Amino acid sequence: MNKEYLLEKTGGDPEIEGLESLLAVYRFEPGRAPVLPAETTEMRRPWFGWLRFSVAAGAAAVAVFAGLLAYGRIEKLLLNADRPAISEVAPPGRTLPLLVEPSQPSDSERSIAAVDLGTVPSRRTNVQPIRYRKPAATPSIEKRRPQVALTKREKYAYNQLMVALYITGTKLKVVQDTIDRVDDKTDERANNEK
Amino acid sequence: MPQGEAAAEAFVFSPKGVVENSAAPATRESELVERFRTGDEEAFAELYRQFSPMVHGIVLARVPRDEVQDIVQDVFLAAYRNLKGLRDSRLFGPWLVKIARNRAAEFYRSSKPTEELPEHIPGGRRRDNEAAEVLRAIRSLSDAYRETLILRLVEGMTAKEIAAQTGIKPESVRVNLHRGMQMLREKLGVREVQR
Questions:
Q1: Residue A168: what pLDDT?
Q2: Residues 6+ apart with CB under 8 A from B61
Q3: What is the mean pLDDT of residues A123-128?
Q4: How do residues A14-36 score in pLDDT, each as one tens digit?
Q5: Is A34 in Cβ contact with B77 (below 8 Å)?
Q6: Per-residue b/e over B73-93, b at no fewer than 16 CB within 10 Å?
Q7: A19 touches chain B (CB under 8 A)
Q8: Rounded to a whole number, what is the distance in Å from the CA of B21 to chain A's nearest CA?
């Protein structure tokens, strides 16, 4: 083995030359330059993350609003289903009728009243204070809920809605925590304690 | 920056031990590194042309041939991203060697276990089979020998070039080449006898 050829490629050595030519198939082929990340690194901007969070928060807010709207409608429908129609309780336009017991006004008072009906009655008038009929105690939603007989489909829809609201609420909390950077603050606090 | 690459900035490891080559004078590659730091992209292309065979050899000593080109690109991509953090521009070569070794090691950590084609492929060309057998024999040697042998026999670099680019002492390169060649001959000879 020619040591000079092995180290500095001077002279010649058939054995090493044979190995070189055999292994030439593995030699590096120049020309394929690496794909440098000029654009990809520039594209990462800090505000992009906030934009994503804003979009997510907006979508969650819309979902919650729609859910609440649907929830209110369903609740109203459920409450109205077993409540008697308003027309059966009171005449249209007034659910709490006034019970006024006016005394007989004098002529002058009549004229005043004719002119200024909307004002507060003066001390001189004998008009009794307006008394409202005590409204019947409205049963709360919780009390009413068991009384409502829901069909199977309605129960399913109700449960689905509750689940959707729960999920949306959780997502909103995550977004809020991210905006407030709760984790960062917790980490900072832990570091400070250390 | 991966931990290994950060470590590569501070120390230069030769296959057989620590070699500190920071006393070396400013070289052409250190000038290219400085030019790149000032925003000259063409300087990095020049560094790529100069060091790609060395990186290719380092990677080829460890991973299957089909994966080598991708890993070489990956190494230069990592170098491109982190080069501005390299403290001593004269240590670019050793730093690149360290990245190449780390990337080759990561390949085995992250990829599914693969198996290279056998040395003797039925129907394959005899010369290709012989080349695969020699390469396999070189890869079976220890790191110190297989890297220098591949850089010499596959990439065609001289001992001086290997020392200059990898940061290994020239004496160590000479010893590794000489002993590695002897071990390779023994391995190939032993195989021939076994047949």
A1: 86
A2: B138, B139, B143, B146, B147, B150
A3: 56
A4: 888 988 998 988 988 876 566 66
A5: yes
A6: bbbbbbbbebbeebebbbbbb
A7: yes
A8: 21
Amino acid (1-letter code) at residue B175 = V
B77/A3 CB distance under 8 A = no
Contact B99, B78 (CB under 8 A): yes
Asked if the C-beta of B188 comes within 8 angstroms of chain A's C-beta atoms, the answer is no
Q: Which of residues 62-81 of B touch A (CB under 8 A)?
A: 65, 69, 72-73, 76-77, 80-81
Residue B117 φ/ψ, nearest 5 degrees = -60, 150
**Partner residue opposite A30 with nearest CB, options B52, B153, B158:** B52
CA atoms within 13 A on the CB side of B164: 13
Q: What is the ipTM of this complex?
A: 0.75
3-state secondary structure of B156: coil
Please tell me the distance in Å from B113's CA to the nearest CA on chain A.
Answer: 22
Q: Which two tokens stand for residue B117?
A: 């084609």
Tell me whether residues B53 and A35 touch, CB distance under 8 A.
no
Scan for tokens 């042998």, then name that residue: B149
SS3 B14: strand
Fill in the DSSP letter of residue A167: H
Q: Which two tokens stand for residue A135?
A: 């409204």
